[in-house]
Amino acid sequence: MTKINVITPPDILHNQNKSFLLIFPNTDVRNEFQAFLEKFAKAINVYLYSPEEDGDKDVAWLLAMAKIVDYTIFDVDNTEQEEKKFASYIMSLPNTFYLTKDEVTPYNKLSLNRIYDLKWLFELEL
Questions:
Q1: Domain of 63: which CATH number?
Q2: Which SS3 state, helix, strand or coil, does residue 3 take?
Q3: Bridge partner residues of 46 (DSSP)
Q4: Which of 21, 56, 75, 105 fits a disulfide with 69 by CB distance 3.0 to 4.6 angstroms?
């Protein structure tokens, strides 16, 4: 069984595990990520930023984790207004992969890491 550490604001875990940050993941993203975790054999850190559930808004933590983790999965459409102000910065980070149905906002000018699902996770050499 894989050891999964789920970390929420304001906590930080310093170890050598691969780490993922999920920002406002919707139900589909959560389910796909769960399927990935079931196939993943190594210990993993999952940083979860979803303040509507735990009530802890901590934008400073969010920005710090986005720079620290190995992979960020950013559900732009599900993000609240306060955090959306920092979307362009988060998307500009090379380790950020974002999901959106917005075809008007030119996010592709900031990053080409747009994804439509999490199937790419299964292809990673972790």
A1: 3.40.50
A2: coil
A3: 6, 20
A4: 21
